[in-house]
Every structure is written in structure tokens, then in C-alpha cells.
Amino acid sequence: MGLFKGRMRWDSRLVFILAAVGSAIGLGNVWRFPYLTYEFGGGAFLIPYLIALFVLGIPLLILEFGLGQKFQKGAIGSFKAIDKRLGSIGFIAVAAGFIVITYYAVVMAWSLVYLLGSFQDPLPWSSGSSEFFFGNVLQITDSVGDFGSVSVGLIIALLVVWVSIFFCVFKGVRSVGKVVLITMPLPALLLLILLVRALTLEGAMQGISFYVTPDFNALLDPEVWLAAATQIFFTLSVAFGIMIAYASYNKKHQSITKSAFIVALINSGFSLIAGFVVFGVLGHMAAVQNVPIDEVVKSGPSLAFVVFPEAISLLPLASFFSVLFFLMLFTLGIDSAFSLVEAVNTVVSDKFRKMAAHVVAFIVCVAGFVAGLIFAAGSGLYFLDIVDHFVTNYSLAIVGIMSCIAVGWMYGADNMREFINSVSEMKLGVWWNHAIRWVIPLSLGTLFLIQLYRDIITPYEGYPAWALSVGWLTVLIPLAIGIGMVVKAKN
Ligand code: TRP
Questions:
Q1: Which residue of 46, 210, 245, 336 is 20 to 30 Å from 378, comparing CA positions?
Q2: Is 33 helix (H, G, I), strand (E, B) or coil?
Q3: Total Cβ atoms within 10 A of residue 295
Q4: 8-state DSSP, 151
Q5: What is the DSSP letter of 42?
Q6: Full-model pTM
Q7: Is 268 in the pocket of ligand 1 (CB under 6 A)?
Q8: d(CA 394, CA 96)
Q9: For 5-26, what is each residue's pLDDT tens digit?
Q10: DSSP letters along 409-458, please?
Q11: Is the C-beta atom of 198 inside 6 A of ligand 1?
């Protein structure tokens, strides 16, 4: 970004695309996507995932790019430009992003712990990757109520993560484009190397076929659709105010539609390849342990930190590869983490011109570190699971639906489409109007209600009510503030 008299600008469209891809591709692709796919039965998940990409993800990404670029403001300002009361949507979005980043940074901290461990010979997890992860890294307790001891190593790692994020924002705002030139090709290359290794493992094909064989019965389970939809939001960094902020630094006449397709397709391509790696390795583990593929490991947020390390310890030059792999995870994550701090910065500096960006960034980073401590405790993984469940299922759906209502109905889908088409070489058809006005709000609304019903009937994963209420609060507090903003804007 170069600093001009007016708004800051990306140096070129390419830099914008790289930054957007950098935000999109992150731990969500290598960590979250594979564990969801495994949890929901491999091929059973892929169809809803791809449908959600085209039906929800791409139209919403176009919407956010259009919104930010048209109004030249961050999430709150852009929605406000439509109607004063709508600034609340931007607030809820950015708040959701902030909550995500508090646990996202903890996952990056796990990566750092592994990165350091990679220098040891033999690798500290070579005698059991599962024990290493749960026992040594997390020091996990038996239940969410037992906070356990706080792992000092993890807290130091978390601090390092936040300091790095801060330095990226503090020093790197103008060099994001250059940073991404390194942090994009490197992980892609590493992933390809791992892909070759994974596919040549004994038993790999069993895992791959689990991954790609569709299970049409699963399509009747709303839970799968919900997980697919939320993963699409998470992975595209949509409904966090991030893409709106990034697009607001584009020149007003820059082409939009093709950029959105490029970002979305590169991002999902990355996930799909990561899936081949994970499932190749799962297939191998199934063969070695002589168990069915769906019983190899306990699914969940731990998958990438149990299966990937295991895979790497099978490679010749294991230490070398694991250094590269965890460096990859870290560099993948930092672009995404950084983008959220930018979303907050944008919103704040839209409102208070004089407030220096690094002061805002500092406050965000300190707050993020402190809030993230809960995920670094012995029961941290349980909280991570709970908060991730609530924020990604509810907050993102709320923001998605509200964005569609704001743009599709209040601003007018046709007005926005006209603007987008007036600057884009690739023309958006009227299908986009239907997607924004009907398909997305109705499908998200349905999924939202089903999820709500399920969460009320059966406590999520059997967690105790007090723990689940932490999850509810992460949704309800920002929502209440948002409603307060609507009321205040009326008067
Ligand atoms: N898109 C990123 C990924 O897939 C993650 C992400 C989305 C994110 N929204 C965020 C990270 C908000 C931090 C804050 O990994």
C-alpha cells in the first residue's frame, strides 16, 4: 500500500489479489478444512462444500468487494453509507473476526511450539504424535471445568505470535504485497512436496477414496450443510469485515468480479490439495494400524497436529521437512491474522482520522493476547471447540443474512450489480441478484434455525451449560451491542 493524500491504495490489482488470497488461505485450509472433512465422512462433505462455495461464498465475496470498493470505507462505514443503522452489521462482523483471531493465534502458537520441536533429534513426537500434542503441547485436562496448569511454553509462543502480528501491521502495511510474494509460493511448494510423499505412502489410496467418494445420504443431514457453509465463510474470510476493508483500498474503478473468482478458486484449490495430503496419510495410518479409515484418529481441531507431524516424521530428512511445514503453517496464518487487525484498523481510522494505526494495532494485539489465554489453558482446546462452534455457526450466519438484506433489499441488488458491472470486464448475470436476495438469506436462515433448535435440544458435544454459555456470550454480546447501535442511530 502506498500512502497518498487521500485513502491508502494497494500498489496494483495484483497486490490486492495477493493480499486477499493471503487472508483467505490460512490455517483454515490446512487445519480446519481437513478435520471437518474427516469428521463429516470425507466425500460426504465435499459436495456441500463445493455447492456452498458457489452458492454462498463467491456471491458474498463479490458483495464484499463491491461494497468496500464502492464506498471506500471499512465494514462499518460501508454499511452505514447504505443506511445509518446498518453500521451495526459491520460491527458484528469485525467483533466475530476478533473472537476468531483470539483462538486462531493460539493455533498459530501450537505451530510455533512444533516449529521449535522440529530442531530436536529425534523429533519430540516421533514416539507418539498424539501423546505429544495432547500431553506435552496442550497439557490437556479431562474436562472443560478443569482448567489445569497453564503451559508456560504455549503462552510464550502465543506472545511471540502476537508480537509478530503486531510487527506485520506496524511495519509491514506498505510491504504486504512483498511479504505475500514470499508467503504465497512457499507454502504452495511445500504442500506439493508433501502431496507427492503422501500419495506414495502405503495405503494412501484407501484414504483418498474415503476423501473423494461422495456419500449422497449425508446430503440429507443439515449438520453437514451447516458445517460446509460456515467453513466457506471462514476460509474466504467473508463476514468478518476483512474483505470489505481490503477492497476499500482499491481504486473505485478496479475490476471486481474476476478478482473474486480468482481469490475463491485459488483458496479452495489449496484446501482440496491439503485434503489429499491429510487423507493420504490417514489411509496410511489405517493400513499400518489395521483399522478402518474412519477410526484412525479422533477428529477435531487436533487432526493437523497429530496427522501432519506423523506424516513428516515418515519422510527422510524429517527435521528439515517439519521445520518447513510448521514455518508454512505459521506464514499461512500470519497473513490471515494480520488481515483482521487491518479490518479493525480500517474501521477505527474511518471514524477517528487522527488515531495512529499502530496505536490501534497495539490495542488490538494486547486485547487479542489476553483474551486468547483461555485457549492456552489445560482446558483450552474445549473452549476453542465451543467458541469456534458458536461464532462460526451463528455470528457468521447473522452477518451473512444481514449483509444480503442490506445490499440485496435496502441498497438494491441491481444497483450494486450495476456498479460492479460498470467496473468489471467479467459481467455478473442476474443470478447474482437472486443469490443475494433470496437464496443466501433463505438457506442461511434455515440452517441457522436448525442449528439453534439442535443446540437448544442437545448441549453441543455434551459440554456443561456454564461452558456453553461462554459460547453463547461470544455471539450475544456483539449482537446486543449491534442492536444498541441500531437503536442509537434511529434517534
Ligand atoms: N480465512 C482464514 C483461514 O482460512 C482465517 C480467517 C478468517 C481469520 N477470518 C479470520 C483469521 C479472522 C483471523 C481472523 O485460515
A1: 336
A2: helix
A3: 9
A4: P
A5: T
A6: 0.94
A7: no
A8: 10
A9: 578 888 889 989 999 999 999 9
A10: IIIIHHHHHHHHHHH-SSPP-THHHHIIIIIHHHHHHHHHHHHHHHHHHS
A11: no
